[in-house]
Design goal:
Layout: E1 27-33, H1 34-38, E2 43-50, E3 52-53, E4 65-66, H2 72-89, E5 94-102, H3 110-123, E6 132-136, H4 143-151, E7 156-162, H5 166-171, H6 178-191, E8 195-202, H7 209-220, E9 226-231, H8 239-242, H9 251-263, E10 267-269, E11 274-277, E12 296-299, E13 305-306, E14 310-312, H10 320-331, E15 338-344, H11 347-360, E16 364-366, H12 367-374, H13 383-390, E17 394-398, E18 401-404, H14 406-409, H15 412-418, H16 422-430
Parallel strand pairs: 2-5, 2-12, 3-4, 5-6, 6-7, 7-8, 8-9
Antiparallel strand pairs: 1-15, 9-11, 10-11, 13-14, 14-15, 16-18, 17-18
Helix pairs in contact: 2-3, 7-9, 11-15
Length: about 425
């Protein structure tokens, strides 16, 4: 039976589907033992969440608070406790690639950051063998922290700069000076870190093609390994959302400008948002980990974990007061051996997640793997895939292996939401935003 989800391309920015189902579908669960959830799983991606920043940008809906007055060290202690308890329950869990995100992990002081790195390694993460990434911000990164990141062999350092124009930064609600950004980027570019990524945002109030091109030109001067182009989404309870700022009417044109500029200046497009420098395209070590089919285990308040059948985390919020409460509850937790907040995935949701992650996280759909897992071709079940073929956005590059082409990648924020189930959409709609 075909599930019909017609693509509405008149609105190219319907939702950034970086994971599925969204955290707003999570609900309270009858407590489940951690061991029972992971008993048939033997490997996982590892993620640790640091929910602190030196400032809260106007567009940010991440699980983070700015300038916590105290208790950062207590938070690290709680992360250590959670890691210890997971290790006790799951002593044979094999950890592969990893990421340290937030928030801003480099908000931590050097000694706190090193303590975190040591705890991760004690947990079984091997930065020399597996690829790791850490997030930073211009105001919190410095030479000492970069040296520590290199010392611990964390391969990738990612930083949002958003714009090289002060008025655009102000419009984004980001009180960061261009001088601060310049110093940070120069330090990273000159450090010899294995990979570094810089993020830009398009669709800022009063941004023009000319001003966006200026930021792009300034960015490629440092030859980052990757550049991510993020559309500005104005979401509930964010600074810009509270101010009722309107979405840009020429956002898609800015995207095409940015995409074409990077493609003409030595970068290869790997997804709607990600552009990788040509000479770096094949230098990353091969990994057996797949975000489409493999598991992830996260620690920290706001960290997401998932197995085939269950996605879970702490409670979710955007409002500072509610996030602070959740962080405090996390730091007061003594038992991390059970799960009580998340969402179970039935077979239909597992199929949708497979397709969404395939098409919006690298743009490749492995029909053979899908059939091996689910005993049916996805083209027999989801009409939207046939529509992608009819539009010539999805092409067969090898037998039973399909890829979004350049035009198809432009509409990843349409394709992802078109594959949401009715149940997930209802749960998202019914979520009590706080």
């Amino acid at each position: 039976m075909l599930v019909s989800n017609s693509l509405d391309i008149t609105q190219p920015y319907q939702g950034y589907t970086y994971s599925y189902p969204h955290k707003s579908t999570y609900r309270e669960l009858t407590p489940i033992d951690l061991k029972d959830v992971w008993q048939k799983q033997n490997s996982a991606f590892f993620y640790v969440h640091i929910p602190f920043c030196e400032m809260r940008c106007g567009f940010c809906n991440l699980f983070t608070i700015s300038n916590p007055k105290e208790r950062v060290s207590k938070y690290i202690e709680t992360v250590q406790l959670q890691i210890q308890q997971i290790s006790e329950v799951l002593p044979d869990l094999y950890l592969q690639n990893f990421a340290i995100g937030g928030g801003t992990p480099t908000f931590l002081a050097v000694d706190e950051l090193e303590l975190l790195f040591k705890s991760i390694i004690d947990f079984g993460v091997n930065p020399q063998q597996f690829f790791g990434s850490i997030e930073a911000s211009p105001k919190t990164i410095n030479l000492e922290k970069i040296a520590l990141i290199k010392e611990y062999k964390i391969a990738r350092l990612s930083m949002g700069i958003q714009s090289w124009i002060q008025d655009e930064m102000k419009a984004l609600g980001r009180p960061q000076t261009i001088e601060t950004t310049l110093t940070a980027v120069e330090h990273i570019a000159q450090s010899g870190v294995e990979e570094f990524n810089l993020d830009l945002i398009y669709g800022t109030h009063n941004q023009t093609n000319k001003s966006f091109l200026y930021s792009l030109q300034k960015t490629i001067a440092y030859q980052p390994t990757e550049i991510f182009l993020y559309p500005l989404y104005i979401r509930k309870l964010t600074g810009l959302g509270i101010k009722n700022q309107k979405q840009s009417q020429h956002q898609f044109k800015l995207y095409i400008t940015g995409r074409d500029f990077l493609l003409n200046n030595g970068y290869i497009q790997t997804s709607m948002r990600c552009f990788r420098r040509k000479e770096a395209i094949d230098c990353r070590p091969e990994s057996k980990y797949s975000s489409i089919t493999d598991n992830m285990i996260g620690v920290g308040a706001g960290a997401r974990s998932y197995t085939k059948n269950l996605h879970y985390s702490t409670d979710y919020a955007v409002n500072r007061k509610e996030i602070k409460t959740i962080i405090n509850d996390y730091m007061n937790t003594k038992d991390f051996k059970s799960i009580n907040y998340g969402v179970a995935l039935n077979t239909d949701e597992q199929k949708r997640r497979f397709l969404i992650k395939s098409l919006t996280d690298g743009g490749r759909l492995n029909e053979k793997l899908y059939k091996d897992i689910f005993d049916v071709s996805p083209f027999n079940e989801f009409e939207v895939l046939n529509e992608l073929l009819e539009r010539n956005w999805l092409t067969e590059i090898q037998p039973e292996l399909y890829a979004l082409n350049q035009e198809g990648m432009c509409y990843e924020d349409v394709i992802g939401p078109a594959l949401y189930s009715e149940n997930s959409k209802r749960l998202m709609q019914d979520f009590e935003w706080k």
